[in-house]
Design brief:
293 residues; alpha+beta; Uridine Diphospho-n-acetylenolpyruvylglucosamine Reductase, domain 2; Uridine Diphospho-n-acetylenolpyruvylglucosamine Reductase, domain 3; Uridine Diphospho-n-acetylenolpyruvylglucosamine Reductase, domain 1; 3 domains; 5-stranded antiparallel beta sheet; 7 helices
């Protein structure tokens, strides 16, 4: 494909995505781009639109399953520092969509601003967490958001206020945008107390989920009737495997890559889990991870 001169030298082809995801699964991207500036990102989006290319936005790659055969289209990763800025504005933080959550939490602690501690240990970027309204312990990041700066897939910059935003359980109305920055409302707090809460949440998360094998976090959303992990466990599926993908023996809502698992292994296991839970509890489990194919 003949890309514009301003972009062509930085557009890569056939980049393997497995190493860029926490699952360590997936094939190559047809085109791969890490823009250095907002203008470069806009130019790539405009060209992709004109060329009829699908566009995928890759954050930390912590909640996606990439097709083993690879992806046709353009994968964009906001890895440049220009998309990772972070600054205080009174008791708020304005941060770039490409900033990792752990860095955002440490920044808030350094500046004595509390409210983000419940996100400790959740991998991913701010943009990705807003898109899926990430949360834990009964709290979600959407509750903290007052403004968001976004690009639509035509390259148009928009400024969304709280009235424009809609957050529900593990979902938002931001899926038609690329999140460039967000403003989060926090509260003054003592650095020491913020640190204590972070440690408590990290320990609790490690005790419930801890493992060292590649995974994508919780595979299914919790249904209104309870915990997805508990339902899967009650179906006796802990340790169940398909190929090199296995249901965690510690937390049943985690699927682990035990060694060169393929996307089809995971999908087969997900299908089995959904059928077993539906058969026993009449509950349809909905994937929490994004499946790119």
């Amino acid at each position: 494909m003949l890309w514009p001169k301003s972009l062509s030298k930085n557009i890569k082809t056939n980049v393997n995505l497995a190493s860029l995801t926490s699952f360590k699964i997936g094939g190559p991207a047809e085109y791969f781009f890490e823009p250095k500036t907002l203008k470069e990102l806009q130019a790539a989006l405009i060209f992709a639109k004109q060329a009829g290319l699908r566009v995928f936005i890759l954050g930390a790659g912590s909640n996606i399953l990439v097709n083993q055969a690879g992806l046709t289209g353009l994968v964009i990763r906001l890895s440049n520092q220009n998309f990772k800025g972070c600054r205080c504005q009174s008791s708020c933080i304005v941060a770039g969509g490409g900033l990792k959550l752990n860095e955002l939490i440490l920044f808030s602690k350094k500046h004595n601003l509390g409210g983000l501690e419940f996100l400790a240990g959740i991998p991913g970027t701010l943009g990705g967490s807003l898109l899926g309204n990430a949360g834990a312990w009964g709290k979600s990041i959407g509750e903290l958001v007052s403004q968001v700066g976004v690009l639509d897939f035509n390259g148009n910059l928009k400024h969304l206020t709280a009235n424009d935003l809609k957050f529900t359980y593990r979902k938002s109305n931001l899926n038609k945008y690329i999140i460039i920055w967000a403003k989060l409302k926090l509260k003054p707090a003592q650095k020491k107390m913020i640190g204590v809460k972070i440690k408590e949440n990290l320990l609790q998360r490690k005790q419930a989920q801890g493992n060292n094998l590649p995974n994508a976090g919780c595979i299914f959303k919790n249904p209104g009737q309870g915990s997805a992990g508990r339902l899967i466990d009650l179906c006796g599926l802990k340790g169940m495997s398909r190929g090199k993908a296995m249901v965690s023996k510690r937390h049943a809502n985690f699927i682990l890559n035990t060694g060169n698992a393929k996307s089809q292994d995971v999908l087969s296991l997900m299908d089995l889990i959904q059928k077993k839970v539906k058969s026993r509890f009449k509950i349809n489990l909905e994937p929490e991870i994004k499946i790119w194919k």
